[in-house]
Amino acid sequence: MSTQSVLDRHLQAFGDGDVEMAVADYADDAIFISPRGAVLGAAAMRPVFQELFSGLFKPGTYEFTMDAVTVEGDLAVIVWHAAGAAADVPFGTDTFVIQDDKIVRHTFAGQINVK
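Given the sequence above, the corresponding structure tokens read:
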């Protein structure tokens, strides 16, 4: 599976609010880093996605727009914005390192304006 295919699958899971599919995209020893800190391991991602999909990114409560996607080798970078019931995100960016069909490293940064 290509880096683009894994990214597409992950973005679909995110859009659907599918916690299990989103978590399944991560390697067991994956690392996710955001301004809130680091999350280590796929199992630790579950509560992160549960919180996102029941709050800020609850399916049907926001509009997500992809502004740019760059994929090169095992690296993918997305730039996006979203408007929602809970908050607006005028700028968001995620970087993914994908190896052996799994996300092994993921970073997020963005401006979140809570309503």
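The mean pLDDT is 97. Try to locate this feature in the token string yourself.
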